[in-house]
Design brief:
α10 crosses α14. This protein has 2 domains: 253 residues, no CATH class; 146 residues, 2-Layer Sandwich (Zincin-like). By secondary structure, it is mainly alpha-helical. The relative contact order is 0.12. Helix content is 72%, strand content 4%. Strands 1-2-4-3 form a 4-stranded mixed beta sheet. The radius of gyration is 24 Å and the shape is globular. InterPro entries: CAXX_Prtase_1, Peptidase_M48, Peptidase_M48_N. Belongs to the peptidase M48 family. One of its GO terms (molecular function) is metal ion binding.
């Protein structure tokens, strides 16, 4: 492969993107370290973090592992594509005599398997190294292997079906395939809202409806206050893998459900747990799922339009030494170009999620009062050793939830009078 303006441009785009986000990650660590040092008292009183050094160490290590994996992954991609590996694979697949669609299915399945295998060393270090040292890991080696095999099987299945469908659309609808791919995305996204909670998630965890008892009464109380009929609330055995806390809302219609981690139920006070539940109900009440779905559909329309133009751009194939008939290779190259553009426009999609999270916090405060929600946020951040002080620019690109101090400040500023005046005020992080 000879260097050209296209190959140099793609290389520059990939490396520059990675460098920019690595710079943001480094600044994020530095920024957090500065503010942690200034606000140790607030961290202890509000988040229950008595050892702020542990918080900093955890943040540094997880960031370092993530950055190392990203750079090694980029190096592998560059080595394969610029070292002639892509053209060699295309020639090898063409020699099989399979149709272009089947060649593409084999190609993308191979990429999925390679990506899964390449992630294993980093997952091992993260799970049995970092998470173990900081007391989060409960996963056994046997469970790790099982999870890996299930994830691999799911990846192969989805890639084969979706990749084959898109490649078939390219072959049969050469001018309209982006519209067909967009329609496929919309349908799959809707189907996943049904399949994930009922088929996929149970492959990894057990989900139990909340039984009659004190917890059930507390949940029914929240639903009554919010004006909802009690619906599907489940606890998930998250403690099989980690001690960290979380909850989430998923689905629509009869498939909607709120899922509470068993660690959340175990470690939170009743009022805090009720506030978290009220927060999740807000996503349902305010139709956040549908708004996010619509925004994702608009974003995907732009993405497939860009992919459509690039896949039909023959100089791209020529530059990387692959035949224009190998549309699956063109799709990969197009995806490499479009992905950085998605990364740089992440603040646009994050802005909607941030607004929804603020709305959900406000609704939880309206239903349960501000202080229980403040306490819940503090416990979540403290138990999970979440970085409370992200760099503003890093947060714009990576955070779908507002930073914890901001969320607590907004709740404290509410005029419902339920937050005590003597409570330590959250620090103002500001811009850098």
């Amino acid at each position: 492969m000879q260097l050209s303006a296209i190959t140099v441009g793609v290389f520059a785009l990939l490396v520059t993107t990675r460098a920019v986000f690595s710079f943001l990650a480094i600044r994020n660590v530095q920024y957090a370290d500065q503010l942690v040092a200034k606000h140790r008292e607030w961290l202890g009183s509000t988040l229950g973090i008595d050892d702020s050094d542990e918080l900093q160490d955890y943040h540094r290590l997880t960031t370092a592992i993530g950055e190392l994996e990203s750079w090694i992954g980029l190096a592998a991609v560059v080595l394969v594509i610029y070292g002639g590996g892509l053209s060699w694979v295309v020639d090898l697949l063409a020699a099989t005599g399979l149709s272009v669609v089947l060649q593409g299915v084999v190609f993308f399945v191979g990429l999925a398997v390679a990506a899964q295998l390449a992630s294993i060393p980093f997952r091992l270090v993260s799970t049995f190294g970092v998470e173990e040292v900081f007391g989060f890991n409960n996963q056994t080696p046997t469970l790790f292997v099982r999870d890996t095999l299930v994830q691999l099987a799911l990846s192969v299945g989805f890639v084969a079906i979706l990749g084959g469908a898109v490649l078939a659309a390219i072959e049969r609808l050469p001018t309209l395939w982006p519209a067909a791919a967009w329609g496929l995305f919309v349908v799959v996204s809707l189907v996943m809202q049904i399949l994930y909670p009922r088929v996929i998630a149970p492959l990894f965890n057990d989900f139990e409806p909340v039984a009659d008892g004190e917890l059930r009464k507390a949940i029914e109380d929240v639903f009554e206050r919010a004006g909802f009929a009690t619906s599907d609330i489940y606890t998930m055995d998250a403690s099989r893998r980690s001690t960290q806390l979380n909850a989430y809302f998923i689905g629509f219609g009869r498939t909607k459900r709120v899922v509470l981690f068993d660690t959340l139920v175990e470690k939170m006070e009743q009022a805090e747990l009720q506030s978290v539940l009220a927060h999740e109900l807000a996503h349902w009440k305010e139709a956040h799922i549908w708004k996010q779905f619509a925004a994702g559909a608009v974003q995907m329309a732009v993405v497939v339009a860009a992919l459509g133009w690039l896949v039909d751009f023959e100089p791209l194939y020529t530059a990387f030494g692959v035949p224009a008939s190998a549309t699956y290779a063109g799709l990969l190259l197009a995806a490499l170009i479009v992905t950085p553009l998605l990364q740089f426009t992440a603040p646009l999609s994050n802005a909607l999620s941030l607004a929804h999270e603020r709305e959900a916090d406000a609704y939880a405060a309206e239903v349960m009062g501000s202080q229980p929600m403040i306490d819940a946020l503090g416990r979540l951040a403290g138990e999970n050793l979440a970085n409370p002080f992200p760099h503003p620019w890093y947060a714009r690109f990576h955070y779908s939830h507002p930073p914890i101090p901001e969320r607590i400040r907004l709740l404290s500023d509410r005029t419902d009078g339920d937050a005590t005046d003597s409570a330590p005020q959250p620090p103002a992080t500001g811009d850098d």
